[in-house]
Amino acid sequence: MSASDVAGSADWLALKAAASALQPLQIKDGSVPEAADHAGAAEHVGIICRSIETLAPHFPHDSAYLRLLVKDFGHWRDSGFGVPDFLDSLLAFSPAAERVNGLGHLVVFPMYTQNGSTSRLVEAVLIEVVWPDFVAELESGAYSNKLFVPVRFLDFTAGYDSNSAVLFPESVAVRETPTFTWGAIFADREAARFRRVLRAAAATTSLELPADAAALLDDQQLAQETFVMWDLIHDRTHMRGELPFDPFMIKQRMPFFLYSLEELRCDLTAFRESVKVEHDDDASPQARRHAKLVQYAVIFDRIFRFAITGSRVRNYDGLGGQLLFAWLHQHHVLHWTDTKLSIDWDEVPDVVIALGTAIEDLYWRSIDRPKKAHWLAAYQLVSATVTPNPGSVWAKGPDALPLAGAPRGLTDQVLDDEFPLSMFYEALEKKMRSVIESTAGITGETQDASAAGTDERAAA
Prior knowledge:
The chain folds into two domains: about 5-180; about 190-460, no CATH class. The protein contains 17 helices and seven strands. It has helices at about 5, 10-20, 40-55, 65-80, 85-90, 135-140, 185-205, 210-215, 220-235, 255-280, 285-305, 315-330, 350-365, 370-385, 405-410, 425-440, 445-460, and strands at about 105-110, 120-130, 150-155, 165, 185, 335, 340-345. Strand 6 and strand 7 (about 340-345) form a beta hairpin. The two termini are about 40 Å apart.
């Protein structure tokens, strides 16, 4: 039985139902505090364990992990449903060790989901690895990334019926923090929401898409594999380059626009490297084709979806999209004329790479600067292109800021919406709001089913 077949099996459906029934009994830390709920919780855990044992033969590559998973569930139950500890099974789960296209995994942990639930509830996810040959070729060469696992959804519990598109081991409830050896990204969700948003945004702005970019709208697999290439390069970039002394992936309290620059730096690196691959005669035709598509995906996802998704409270991805849009506009390769959007594609690569170079220069100089000076320089880079909030203290310059105190004093002065949406984006957000909201919980299958329904209604 394939992983896709498992998704329709009675054992998976029973496991999913038991996990869903267990969630309301848990609190934020994952425990079940009410003694009156323990009998019911034990019944749900029993169903989960029996289902895992029955399904395990369909996942022989995960046999050690699934065996320890049942043991961890049993220990949690027998110890009275305190704060769960699934370290042993987590350490045995190594999806990056065998990246084979179509290889399935049954993932069940008490965990939070980024952009979903912040509580460590028991979630169950059926996934399938996406690993096309051209990606394996790139990863085995200049773009090595041993921890990266691109996947697609087969089925999931409520925590993933959200905007979450990642499955990270650090989200699992454990007694101590281990060394993490993998990180999974749902390329099908990224591709599906990209396709839906781009189709609507292009229609709203009267943007004429290049033929190869338009092909992404009608081909989920093509878009999905494009995002795998983008993510492969983006993910490895976080720990590479002329970085500030403290890597940005370590949690620290900083002004949110610094996170904007870090995420944008990684995307612009993916763009730049894709330009290289596109013109590399030694790369496979598939790699070269997808390299061109990555460039479109980075621009369109950033300027259309990132910029207007989420709240305006320290929205660092939103600011990154605003910055890219304004940079393209102010360098005269993106035009909003006669209420129509147009882009000079032949000139785009040089302009986008120049923004990446500006961010990299900021990073290179940071090793010679105090932290506060680096923050000020970063603000100057962003505010030179994106207009700050008129009420901003930061916008008044260093003389208005509490430079003599602790760095957190500077962070406290950053407004929640330090860089508000432009008039263009305010209008676009209102028109695109329902489309953006509709992408919560989307997968490749649901997007294609929705598109097919739209086509049928149009034909009727």
